[in-house]
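Example 9 (inverse folding). The structure is encoded as follows.
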């Protein structure tokens, strides 16, 4: 018999993505298996919060790096307590969506109910951005990927977001402490944090966030818009396999259980088969 699968996240000041996140994972795994922590009693709840397990918690003011570690530790401990009821527990940021390749003609739920020999699975990371010239502001009522055509193949978002047994995620869910990773050949992790330039820019200029260490992060992340405007993309399917091999083999010396950045062109056009999924 197939076992249920849980999905967990936490957000603050990011309700922009929350309802899309809830509906996407709720339709796949069942709303009763979705767990969302709202970081701060001052935060507005998503419209679909009543459908899921939604918890408001007290906000603690911390530097960005400390807050990332705190969030990963809290969710790791929470996820451990969901076993053995669940076959797998997924954990990610509110703007990240795990997608199974439509060519497989199989649901993500059915796929993850297989037996795996790994403790976690990573999806190939695609960092989606709005082309500054060719694409309009995002319409939240339409499918995200029907409005966006480009992404960067990203080591940072090739994350082990699927746990198949109790594990400890590192900061930002970028690694699992003390364990290697496996990049699944059929899974993709789409990061939508920069999918709407106006929204992203409003966060870049948020003084409260910048005071807690986000300034350099925002500066680095905003480079995607220059890349989108000035570089020529490659068809995604031509690079997906190469990227998985590269990320699997190449690591930084002091980060052996995370992929290293690619040293080849990584701007791609997203294949049309993904357009109706999110």
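The amino acid assigned to each position is listed next.
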């Amino acid at each position: 018999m197939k076992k249920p699968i849980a999905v967990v996240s936490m957000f603050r000041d990011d309700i922009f993505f929350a309802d899309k996140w809830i509906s996407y994972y709720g339709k796949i795994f069942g709303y009763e298996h979705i767990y969302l922590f709202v970081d701060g009693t001052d935060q507005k709840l998503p419209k679909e919060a009543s459908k899921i397990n939604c918890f408001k918690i007290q906000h603690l003011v911390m530097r960005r790096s400390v807050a990332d570690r705190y969030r990963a530790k809290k969710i790791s401990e929470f996820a451990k307590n969901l076993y053995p009821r669940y076959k797998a527990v997924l954990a990610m940021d509110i703007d990240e969506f795990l997608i199974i390749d439509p060519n497989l003609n199989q649901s993500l739920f059915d796929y993850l109910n297989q037996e795996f020999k790994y403790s976690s699975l990573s999806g190939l990371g695609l960092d989606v951005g709005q082309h500054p010239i060719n694409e309009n502001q995002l319409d939240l009522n339409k499918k995200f990927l029907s409005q966006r055509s480009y992404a960067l193949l990203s080591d940072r978002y090739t994350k082990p977001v699927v746990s198949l047994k109790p594990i400890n995620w590192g900061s930002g869910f970028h690694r699992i402490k003390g364990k290697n990773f496996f990049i699944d050949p059929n899974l993709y992790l789409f990061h939508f944090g920069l999918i709407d330039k106006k929204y992203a820019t409003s966060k870049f200029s948020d003084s409260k966030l910048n005071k807690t260490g986000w300034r350099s992060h925002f500066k680095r992340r905003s480079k995607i818009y220059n890349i989108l405007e000035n570089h020529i993309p490659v068809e995604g399917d031509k690079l997906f396999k190469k990227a998985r091999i590269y990320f699997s083999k190449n690591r930084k010396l002091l980060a052996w259980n995370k992929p290293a950045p690619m040293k080849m062109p990584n701007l791609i056009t997203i294949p049309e088969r993904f357009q109706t999924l999110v």
